[in-house]
Design brief:
Layout: E1 13-18, H1 19-29, E2 35-39, H2 41-45, H3 49-59, E3 64-67, H4 70-79, E4 84-87, H5 96-101, E5 104-108, H6 111-115, E6 125-129, H7 142-154, E7 158-163, H8 175-191, E8 197-199, E9 215-218, E10 235-240, E11 243-247, E12 252-253, E13 259-260, E14 265-270, E15 286-289, E16 292-297, E17 305-309, E18 318-322, H9 328-334, H10 339-344, E19 352-356, E20 359-364
Parallel strand pairs: 1-19, 2-3, 2-9, 3-4, 4-5, 5-6, 6-7, 7-8
Antiparallel strand pairs: 1-10, 10-18, 11-14, 12-13, 14-17, 15-16, 15-18, 16-17, 19-20
Helix pairs in contact: 1-3, 7-8
Bound molecules: pyridoxal-5'-phosphate.
Length: 372
């Protein structure tokens, strides 16, 4: 393994996270001086929510993060209490006191939610969600918005922001985004309320011209992916060969015996499988063994899979599954999915190793989590 190990990693399958890249990407999205809300839901898009949040706060001037649930918010708040946290998803009324106690900001997802807010909501901080076309969460009309504002003020709830979400932000200058943006702007203006934070853009939405909002919520771009710009991917997935054998023509490999060798072939086994988020749809795809392309053959098992090689390589040879040779965008195209799905399904079983300025500055091992 190329890096100096300062900890025990019992299985040599790991994710490298490049914090120089994260810093570069976050600074890139800061250039317009809008408040940058760094989206770290789903374990920081698989990168490790505590680590990326703490790094972003300490090195990249990030003061706001967004998560999907109060669980995620509470977890991060306990370790990085300096950060302001916005919960983008729905929160049950019974947990509102936890949000208040821990200074966590919730959303108002509908008029009905505002109407039924209990008395215990006094002192809660919220952003109101406006639905401009996703038809997921949010109020839809100016009248509903006005009613929500009145209810919240009467219940002693602090209205700190208002926001919406693009449905088709990856279509540059798309009509849908323009329609949503204009509708959002009109609704906010018509409410006559001075919202401290106003935001609609996600990563790709932040390339839409916007002279109205003062904040944006960026997830995927911070981790290095955008439909419009070359950013710096933070994540690489690597493993090592743990067994190698030469098989005869017509011998089969893996479950179902669906793969048969065409001739004498070298088959290497690597310790990663679908339980790691390395899903069965990767069968037949290319990985890089010592920077040389090789094919994943046979069914992907729960914890292991096999590669066909042109020649023998020793046990311990490094294999790149995601990285400079094999970008996530290529994998997404080849497996008919999106980068979001690939990175968020990489399981907690894989240790994350954090690199910054040519040093390992932290790690997160499954069974031995560490936040320092
Ligand atoms: C409401 C909301 N805002 C912002 C984001 C971040 O989007 P992106 O990762 O494209 O920047 C998401 C992502 O799913 C979201 O659901």
């Amino acid at each position: 393994m190329s890096m100096q190990e300062s900890f025990n990693m019992f299985r040599k399958t790991w994710i490298d996270i490049d914090f120089d890249a994260l810093e570069f990407n976050l600074k890139h999205f800061r250039r317009d001086n809008k408040e940058l809300i760094f989206v770290v839901k789903a374990n920081g898009y698989g990168h490790g929510d505590l680590k990326v949040s703490k790094f972003a706060y300490q090195h990249c001037d990030i003061n706001w993060i967004a998560v999907s649930s109060l669980d995620e918010a509470y977890h991060i708040h306990k370790h990085v209490p300096e950060l302001n946290i916005l919960v983008l998803g729905y929160t049950d009324y019974q947990y509102i006191p936890i949000a208040i106690e821990n200074n966590i900001t919730l959303i108002i997802p509908s008029l009905e939610y505002a109407q039924n807010l209990p008395e215990t909501s006094h002192g809660l901080h919220v952003h109101i969600k406006v639905d401009t076309g996703m038809n997921r969460l949010g109020c839809k009309t100016a009248n509903e918005l006005q009613e929500i504002i009145n209810i919240l003020l009467s219940k002693g709830v602090f209205i700190d922001g208002i926001f919406s979400h693009f449905a088709c932000s990856d279509q540059k200058d798309g009509d849908m985004s323009k329609k949503q943006y204009n509708q959002f702007k009109e609704m906010v203006i018509s409410s006559n309320y001075n919202f401290p934070m106003v935001h609609i853009a996600n990563t790709d939405g932040s390339y839409i011209k916007d002279d109205f909002c003062n904040a944006k919520r960026v997830g995927l771009g911070a981790y290095g992916y955008s439909a419009f710009e070359n950013l710096k991917p933070c994540l690489s997935l690597k493993t090592q060969v743990i067994a190698i054998k030469e098989i005869e023509k017509d011998e089969s490999v893996s479950y179902g015996a669906v793969y048969h060798a065409n001739k004498k072939e070298w088959i290497a086994t690597i310790p990663i499988g679908y339980a790691d988020g390395w899903l069965r749809r990767n069968e037949g795809r290319t990985v890089y063994v010592n920077n040389t392309p090789a094919t994943l053959i046979g069914r992907i098992c729960m914890d292991q899979c096999m590669i066909r090689l042109d020649e023998y390589v020793p046990i311990g040879t490094e294999v790149e599954l995601i990285g400079p040779n094999m970008p996530i965008t290529t994998i997404a195209n080849e497996t008919q999915t999106i980068p979001y799905e690939i990175i968020t399904t990489l399981s907690d079983r894989i240790p994350r190793i954090y690199h910054y300025k040519n040093e390992i500055i932290g790690h997160c091992l499954t069974r031995f989590p560490s936040v320092d």
